[in-house]
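Deviation from plan, reported transparently: copper (II) ion complex.
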Amino acid sequence: MRNTISVILLAISSLILAACGAAPTTTPAVAPATGMALEIRDAWVRPANMAAMPMEGNAQGGSGHGTMDQTTEHGSMSAGTTTAGYMVIKNSGSEPDYLLAAAADIAETIELHNVLMEDNVMRMRPVEKIEVPAGGEVELRPGGFHVMFIDVTRDVKEGESIPVTLTFERAGTVEVNAVVRQP
Ligand SMILES: [Cu+2]
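Because the crystal trials were delayed, the predicted structure below was used instead.
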């Protein structure tokens, strides 16, 4: 009888020890309380070459970037180098979320754009936000929504990985690594 009690006590203390070991007291509060509903995949950025003619790289691939009527303080002859970033954002949550902004250290200005057909010409337009539907996904792709890097500050070389910080209305900031590649 006494032996049985000892075994039970031993088992209980082992369980307590195991529980303590599995739950460190210094758990960092990094995850949002609601859990991360967004999943971002296939993030990529077009290469950018500072020495290339302005717009040259962006006129390729039918992305509509060649017909942009972006206003710059530099005038059309010395417009800065631009490039664009794309990704798929999936939302497993029950509420829509919105991409509000993107940040990276490769450009002076970063905007969210869409490509629209106006008078039979494809034009890019800044958008305030990009909806990620509840239980669905949105694709940022050439010819559609994209992250626009304006006045690129350095060469962006194929194969590089560019850290991009995305800001969402619900999910807050999310870091992604966008690989630099051709469309
Ligand atoms: Cu654009």
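The chain has one domain: 38-180. We consider this an acceptable substitute for the interim report.
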